[in-house]
Specification:
Elements: E1 2-4, E2 11-13, E3 24-25, E4 32-35, H1 37-58, H2 62-81, E5 87-89, H3 91-106
Antiparallel strand pairs: 1-2, 3-4, 4-5
Keywords: Membrane, Transmembrane, Transmembrane helix
Amino acid sequence: MKKNCPCCQQKTTVPALNQEELSFNCEHCNVPLQHNENQVLGYAIAYIAIISIILLTIGINAFITMTISIISYALIRHKIIEPFIDIECNKISEFLTDLELSAQKKG
């Protein structure tokens, strides 16, 4: 999937959330990037809550409702929800890079 890099504003390839990569680099400016964790969690909670409430009002058992909503979220996340999740600069990687550069300047 291609998304705009927040630093250079060019299209870059973004790995899927289910891959093992927690952070990745922009193809153009080589800045460390990551998926916006707040949006990932927010979309998951919102989807699971809405589906659970709908199924509970229909009269389905709460355990079955939670199971259906969690499994359906896992199945549709890649195609429907991931395109809406933004990417952001990885603050920890930037901090460590800046710290390393400042240490090299002192040495």
